[in-house]
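Figure 2 data, in text form.
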Amino acid sequence: MEFFTKEIAKIRTGLASPSLVEDVMVDVYGQKMPIKHIAAISCPERRQILVQPWDKGIIGAVEKALMQSSFGSSPITDREGVRLHLPMLTQEFREKLSKVIAEKEEETREVIRKIRDEAWGQIQEKARLGEIREDDKFKGKEELQKIVDEYNKKIEEAIARKLQDIKAE
C-alpha cells in the first residue's frame, strides 16, 4: 500500500507537488542521484516547483535532468535555482493520467492477490499438517479476506482522491 501511495503521488495533477520531481535522477559527482538528495524542493506557487541545489555548481545538471523529464514545460534557471512551471492539464492528458492510475491500481491488486494466495496456502499447509484445526483454517480465511478487503478499500479511496485532484484543475 505504501508503494502504491508513493507511485500515485508521482502522477502529476494540475497542482505542483515536490513528489513530482524528487525522484528525477541527476547526473552529478560522477553518479546518478535523485533530486531529493541534492536539493531543496518547494512549491512557491500553485503551478510552480522550485528546486534549489545545495551546491550551486550543479544547477545546470539539475536543469538538464528536469528538461529530459516529461513535465510538459521547460525549466527556467535563475539565481535561486531551477523553476518548473506546470501547464494546465488538457482533457486528453487527464484521460491519459486516469489510464496510468488504473494500471497502477491493477498492479497493486495483483500483488495483494498474490500475497493473499501465499497466506492462504500457508494456512492450508498448517491445517494439512495438523498444526491448526479445521475451524481455525476457515477463521484464518475469513480474517485474511477482511484484510484484503480493507486494503482494497484503501486503494479505492486513494484513487478517488487522486482522480478528484486531476479533475479539479
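Caption note: The chain has four helices and six strands.
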